[in-house]
Protein 1
Amino acid sequence: MAKPRVGISACLLGRNTRYDGRAKGAPELIAALAPDVEWVPLCPETDAGLGVPRPPMDLYRLADGRIAAITPEGHDCTPQLDAWIAATLPALRRGGLDGAILKARSPSCAIGTALLHDGVPGQNGNPGLATYSASAGEGAPKSVGGTASDGASAPGVFCDGLFAAALKRDIPELSLAEDEDLRSAAQRELFLARLRVHQRLRRDRRWLLVILALLLALLAFMLSSPALSRYLPPCPLHYLSHGRLTCPGCGFTRGWQALLAGDWRGAGVYHPFAFRLLPLLALVALGHGLLCRWQRRRWPWSQWLWTALGAWLAAWLLTLRG
Ligand code: SF4
C-alpha cells in the first residue's frame, strides 16, 4: 500500500547540507517514522545553489516590510531562495505531498521559530560578521546585544523560515511539524494520523469531486421542476418552529425556480443569493484567477469562501430582522 509522502529537511535525514557542511540528523525520529512514510528530502538552501559550506544567514525585516535572508557580510540570499521556492512548489503540489517535517530555527525551514531581526546586519544592534561562529545553530547569531542566542528560548521575535512560509501559503492543507514537535511517540502517532487522512483525501479527491458534481446536478434538476422539488426535504428550522423561523437556505429553492423561469426580480425576493450567487461566484473565480496570475502565487480559496459565507449569513440575519 502506498505510504504518505512527507517532505523533510534533508539535514534531518543525516545529509551534510547545513551551512557548515554538517548534518543535523534526527535518527530516532527518522527510525520511528520511516516504516510508515515515504520521504521527500528537500534542502532549500543547497537546492537553491547556495553551496556547502556557505555563510550562515539570518532573517531581517527590512524597512519596506519584506523579510530577507541575509548573511553577516550583507549578501541577500532571498532572490535565489525565492526563485527555487517558486520553481519547486508547483512540482511538490503536482507530485502529491501529505505533510512535511522541517528543521526548527532554520531561516529557511523553521515553522515559527526562526529568529527575526529588524533592519540589516551590523545595524540596530544586529549581528555582523564578528558575532557568528562555526558552532552556531542553523544561521543563528551567537549573541546580539544580550538578546539573541542559539535557541527558541531567547527573547526576541520569531517567524517562519522562507520556505516554510511559502509552503503554508501555497499548500495550506499540508500537515507541518518541526522535528522538535515530534519528540514523543504520542506526537508522532498524531502526526501520522493526520498524514493518513490527508493521503486518503488526496487519493479519493477525484471520486469525491465526481460524487459532488453528480449530487449538485441532481439537486439542480430537482430544483428546476416544481413537481420534483416537492420531494426535497423541508427546512428543519422552518418545520420545527411552525413557520416562525427561517434558515439561511430558506427561499433558495423558490428563488432558483423563479430564476430558471426568467423571473429575476422574483428570484431576488425569494432569496438574495439565488439571484446573485452565480454572477458572484463567477466574479470571485475570475478575480481569484487574475490575482494568482498577477502575483504569480497561489492564494488559498478559503479566504473567498469565508467571505461568501459571511455575506450569506449577513443576508439571512437581515431577513430575520425584517
Ligand atoms: S535546515 Fe533546511 S535549509 Fe538548512 S540545511 Fe537543513 S534542510 Fe537545508
Protein 2
Amino acid sequence: MERLEVLWQYQELDLQMDQYVQKKKNSDSRQKLLKIKNYLIKQEHNLVSMDSNADQKLNLLSKLEKEYDGIADRIQAQLKKLQSDEVLALEEIEEITKEGLMLNDNIRKKEDELKKLKQELRNFQERLNDIRRKVANAKTEYVDVKKDYDAEVKKINEELAKVKKQRDQIGEKISKPLMAKYKNIKASRSPVISLLTDNQCDGCFMSLASLVVQRVKDGDRIVECENCGRILYYRESKESIPS
Ligand SMILES: [Zn+2]
C-alpha cells in the first residue's frame, strides 16, 4: 500500500481517538461534577467566613449582656437606696431620680440592641442550616453523578483502547521520519493530512500551483502545503463517492 494511504488510515483512527478523548471531556456527567465541585468549594469558603462572623456576633452578644446586667445592677442599687430608711438630702433624691431616668433610657436601648442582635443570630443560624443542608445534598448528588461518570468513562476507554490498538498496528507500517513529521504537525494542527481537491488544499482551501499539484499527484515525496503546513495527499477518485 502506498505510504500516504497508510498514513491516511492511521490518521482516520487517530482522529477517532481524539473524538473519544473529547467525548470524555465534554461528557454531561463530567460537566455536572465540575459544577457541583465548584459549588462545594464556594460554600466551603462561605461557611468559613460565616463561622468567623458568628463568633463576632456572639462576642458582641456577651458584651451587650454584660452591659445590660451592669445597668440593671446599678438601677437595683439606686432603688435600694431610695427605699432604705436612710434619710436622704433633697439634692441626693433629685440626683438619684435623674440618674434613674437616664438608666431607664439606657437599659431600654440595650434591650433593643439585644433584641436586634438575637434576631440577627436567629436569621444567621437559619441561613447556616440552609447552606449545610444544600451542601449535604450536593455531596450526595456528587457521589451519584460520579458513578455515572465512571461508568461512562470506562465504556469510552474500552472503545478508545480498541481503536488505539488498530491505529498502532497501522503505525508500525509507517517509517519513523514520516511518523515524526506527522506528530510534529499534529502538535499544532489537526487533521495533519489534507486531501488535494480541485487543485486546492482542503485544509486551508488555498489553490496550489500546478507544479505542486503534480508533485502531490506523483506521490514520490512528501509535499506540505505552503500555506498551512499540512501533508498533501492526492487520494484518487475512490474517495469522491460519498459514503
Ligand atoms: Zn493548506
